[in-house]
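Quick one: structure for this chain?
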Amino acid sequence: MEEIKTMEKKRVSESAVVTAQVMMPQDANPAGNVHGGVIMKLIDTAAGVVARRHTRANAVTASIDRLDFHHPVYVGDLLTLRASINLVGKTSLEIGVRAETEHLLTGEIRHTASAYLTFVALGPDGRPVQVPGLILESEDEIRRNREAHDRRDLRLAEKRREEADQGGA
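Got it. Here's what it folds into:
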């Protein structure tokens, strides 16, 4: 396994991103509702930027663990995505993304969607590489890291169950 140039730990804030975009007619259905797939792509893009900033390597989406939509998004709304790292493993990272919409005429802000994505860092040869550790500085970062460990344990247990089921077929 190839290593990234510097393996110093990094702060969550060093790779976090906030991005915003006005939703346009091409993003929506004829009723003016923005397609979930458009929002999903923007969430994946924001998380990918966080992964690359942290690893300084190519990083690919390995999984999306829950993508819950809470409120619709309409043409003309400002969609804001806040993405940051919750957990790092040896070659992977979990990134949480929160999507909020603002109705630009009223100022109303709604929590639109949340998702947890796992990315794997890849070296120039396309093989997984070790990622820098994570410095947790706030109570919120510590809580999110603890919750991410729980999600990781659940994902691994589910993977083991699936592999056992496939072996018995």
